[in-house]
Amino acid sequence: MERFLTKRTQAYCVGKGEHQEQTEEEPGTLGKEPAGPRKRPRRESLESAVLEAGPSWRHIRAEGLDCDYTVLFGKAEADEIFQTLEEEVEYFTGALARVLVFGKWHDVPRKQATYGDAGLTYTFSGLTLSPKPWIPVLERVRDRVSGVTGQTFNFVLVNRYKDGCDHIGEHRDDERELAPGSPIASVSFGACRDFFFRHRESRGKNPCRRVEAIRVQLAHGSLLLMKPPTNTHWYHSLPVRKKVLAPRVNLTFRKILPTKK
Ligand SMILES: O=C(O)CCC(=O)C(=O)O
């Protein structure tokens, strides 16, 4: 979370000349081609087969980076969830929608909201806040993510990008409030956007090492699971893409430590 807590269409690809290891798991029964002329499966039967077989994962691996990517929601369901998020999520306004950079206040270049379990608190822009109580659409996505990952989550940060001008700068989600060893599950709805990982030793004008950046296109209905130690060694960002005109909503599910009494 930038400044936070202190601070496939099966579309998937990586940046030019990248050499990081990426493997794809057999998509269960979907991977087996029938004998004879190829028939294009109907979308509905493909989606129900995915539900039965479980999602097909792409593994993204590099030095200190361990992520898995899949398209978790078929188009019809992703459209419905996106619409509900658009209608029901209540975003921060006022001081919480602004950020202090080098002594000057700026609007955060996206909208943000937090939801989570009762009794949790977190630090945001130096303030101790409580997330809003879960709403059904967020519980639905959270439970689906838990079902396929075997992980539980008690908190979600919602980021809404009205178009390709909205963005998030390079940061790591390495806050002290995060439960040690827990992954972060990033689920995207709406416009497909480029998402970059950059190694911490390869940042800035004079990096001490050259490690290739990794680009992942986060498609409508996709899940990117960022597992430790990814957030220790790699920064991530969602850069400006002026040609993107449509909105996007991203949910990062996290497990944060219970508030000390
Ligand atoms: O919108 C995204 O895909 C990135 C969100 C993010 O980096 C964060 O919540 O920390």
TrEMBL record:
It is an enzyme of class 1 (oxidoreductase). Substrate binds at F102, G103, K104, Y122, T123, F124, D174. Its main location: nucleus. GO terms for biological process: DNA alkylation repair. It catalyses: a 3,N(4)-etheno-2'-deoxycytidine in double-stranded DNA + 2-oxoglutarate + O2 + H2O = a 2'-deoxycytidine in double-stranded DNA + glyoxal + succinate + CO2; an N(3)-methyl-2'-deoxycytidine in single-stranded DNA + 2-oxoglutarate + O2 = a 2'-deoxycytidine in single-stranded DNA + formaldehyde + succinate + CO2 + H(+); an N(1)-methyl-2'-deoxyadenosine in single-stranded DNA + 2-oxoglutarate + O2 = a 2'-deoxyadenosine in single-stranded DNA + formaldehyde + succinate + CO2 + H(+); a 1,N(2)-etheno-2'-deoxyguanosine in double-stranded DNA + 2-oxoglutarate + O2 + H2O = a 2'-deoxyguanosine in double-stranded DNA + glyoxal + succinate + CO2. Residues 1-44 are annotated as: Disordered. Keywords: Dioxygenase, DNA damage, DNA repair, Iron, Magnesium, Metal-binding, Nucleus, Oxidoreductase. 2-oxoglutarate binds at N159, Y161, H171, H236, R248, T252, R254. GO terms for molecular function: broad specificity oxidative DNA demethylase activity; cytosine C-5 DNA demethylase activity; ferrous iron binding; rDNA binding. Residues 152-257 form the Fe2OG dioxygenase domain. Pfam families: 2OG-FeII_Oxy_2. Its EC number is 1.14.11.33. One of its GO terms (cellular component) is nucleolus. It is found in: Nucleus, Nucleolus; Nucleus, Nucleoplasm. It comes from the Eukaryota. Its cofactor is Fe(2+). Interacts with PCNA homotrimer; this interaction is enhanced during the S-phase of the cell cycle. Interacts with nucleolar proteins NCL, UBTF and NPM1. Interacts with XRCC5-XRCC6 heterodimer. Belongs to the alkB family. PANTHER family: ALPHA-KETOGLUTARATE-DEPENDENT DIOXYGENASE ALKB HOMOLOG 2 (PTHR31573), DNA OXIDATIVE DEMETHYLASE ALKBH2 (PTHR31573:SF1). This is DNA oxidative demethylase ALKBH2. It comes from Octodon degus. The lineage of its organism: Eukaryota, Metazoa, Chordata, Craniata, Vertebrata.
